[in-house]
Design goal:
24% strand, single chain, globular, alpha/beta, Thymidylate Synthase, Chain A
Length: 242
């Protein structure tokens, strides 16, 4: 199992560097059970983003835009509201049965040097493949926890993903968590009359991966010359036929 650490300037930089690392150094991994049984490339990956507040939060080449990211941050992370057919969202786990976000805000308003403010998304019963209550197939959350700490008047988040789609999921996840952190800090500042800022985003994932169906999309990002050659060849063959 290869472990690689990436240092990135901002969120788009992290997206590019994560895919580049997996594409060139990732281990082949055949998924045997999960939401998608397929061939992947994957790494045990650590990402440290120094300036996640830098705009834009997503690359123009990413398969998501800011409209989606803002909806995702509000619906799936901050408020906990999802679609009617969804069993849970990250936000619903963070808000019920204990409102961890609210309590974390209160803890930091009272004491900014608190090092015990960890919000948990994964639950013990997520170990089951079949939900004991509903008897239906159960998928555990990819985001397992959000750990927080204030250093140098900045709120730093450390997050763990058990499994992470580097191409499609990662850009929205890191941008959404930055927006989450901005809302988190704004609440603490307002209630505590403080002047905190958002800090680093640090991520760990033991299985940060690219799906086989995404291989060509990722290849085009890092091997554009080959893509241009293929396009030129295709156009040349078309002209000959005409």
């Amino acid at each position: 199992m290869k472990h690689i650490k990436i240092s990135a300037f901002d969120c788009p930089d992290a997206w590019f560097k994560a895919q580049n690392a997996i594409w060139h150094d990732g281990d082949p991994f055949q998924v045997g059970y999960g939401s998608e049984v397929t061939e992947t490339k994957k790494l045990n990956l650590t990402i440290e983003i120094d300036h996640p507040e830098n705009r834009p939060l997503v690359s123009d080449k990413a398969p998501c835009d800011m409209k989606y990211v803002q909806w995702y941050a509000l619906t799936y992370l901050w408020c906990g509201e999802g679609k009617q057919d969804e069993i849970y969202t990250y936000g619903s786990r963070l808000r019920e049965p204990v409102d961890q976000v609210e309590q974390a805000i209160k803890n930091y308003v009272k004491e900014q040097r608190d090092r015990q403010v960890t919000m948990i998304v994964r639950l013990p019963e997520d170990i089951y493949k079949i939900n004991p209550k509903t008897k239906e197939r159960h998928e555990p959350p990819c985001l397992s926890l959000i750990d927080t700490e204030i250093l140098d008047n900045k709120m730093h988040l450390t997050c763990y993903f058990r499994s992470w789609d580097a191409y499609a999921g990662l850009p929205a996840n890191i941008a959404g968590l930055q927006i989450f952190n901005e809302a988190f800090v704004a609440e603490i500042n307002e209630r505590g009359n403080l002047n905190l800022k958002t800090g680093k985003l640090i991520f760990h994932s033991k299985n940060c991966h690219i799906y086989q169906r995404q291989f060509n999309l990722v290849k085009e990002l890092f091997e554009p010359k080959d893509s241009a050659k293929r396009l030129a060849k295709t156009m040349g063959e078309t002209e000959k036929e005409e």
